[in-house]
Amino acid sequence: MSAFLTQASPNSSTSMAPTFLLVGLPGLSAVPSWWTILFITVYILSVLGNGTILWIIALEPTLHRPMYFFLSLLSVSDVGLATGLMPTLLGLALADAHAVPASACLLQMFFVHVFSVMESSVLLTMALDRALAICRPLHYPTLLTNDVISKLTLAIVFRSLGLHLPLPFLLAHMPYCHPQVLTHSYCLHPDMTRLACPGAWGAIYSLFVVLSAMVSDPLVIFFSYGLIGRVLRGLGSSENRWKAGQTCAAHLSAVLFFYVPMILLALIDHLRVPIPQPAHTLLSYIHFLLPPLINPILYSVKMKEIRERILKRLQPRKVGCAQ
Hints:
The protein is mainly α. Helix content is 73%, strand content 3%. It has helices at residues 2-5, 32-59, 66-95, 102-135, 140-143, 146-164, 166-173, 189-193, 201-234, 238-271, 277-302, 304-314, and strands at 19-22, 99-101, 181-182. It has a 3-stranded mixed sheet. α2 packs antiparallel against α3 (66-95). The longest helix is centred in the middle third of the chain and has 34 residues, at 102-135. It starts with a helix and ends in a 9-residue tail after the last helix.
């Protein structure tokens, strides 16, 4: 590690070095088998859970509706996010590989943040979908047509790719005033831009990306749920209120699981709260690894149609005997 610490000092600037050093979770190498089993189990369960959601939605014509199409996009982003994190996580757990080539680090950073912003965009779209369905039920079918859904999907893809496409090139060519030591177990652009010299364009653009996606999206989502809550309070029947609320329960839980750890991490970094590094690293694990694992469970349990279709597909079919 000493080689990395002597690469740059606060008073000098250098170009990007060939490798980055991942600190990860201290003590990880002491119990590699336990962490390896945990990471692999979380990943396999995440892929199986989200794959099941995609499989059910694809096979069931009754689920070919906007809400379930957006849910399938959420599952795709969850699988992509978990897959993007695994190479360095397993490298640290299996081989104690702290050094990562700069090109591989930039590539991981790109895909992790593309799928992270994609997930945020899908959660935003799902919140707007629920707000339209509950606040404007009569206009909902005409407002959210197949053409509109196609345009929203393209907007999500172009937003996720477009925001992050310049980042690898900006970060690769910006001056670094600090050693290339990253505090997490994977490459993240806020972590990398902290190493840049003051005023570097890569750091400025990174801040713009964070503000344009990870700050604006939760604000609009919670505003949408404020509108939904106002409509639900106006419903005369408690049964109707309960049914309408249940349709939003899974989505709101997914929103909280995704954004609360992220907001806590941002506040800890901004306010420089003195918490132990292992706690900070574990919070980042929760932010990135918990949603892909929990979301399929939430939607399978909370959404009756998904649950019933899964059980129907898993039950053995009765075969009649010919007389």
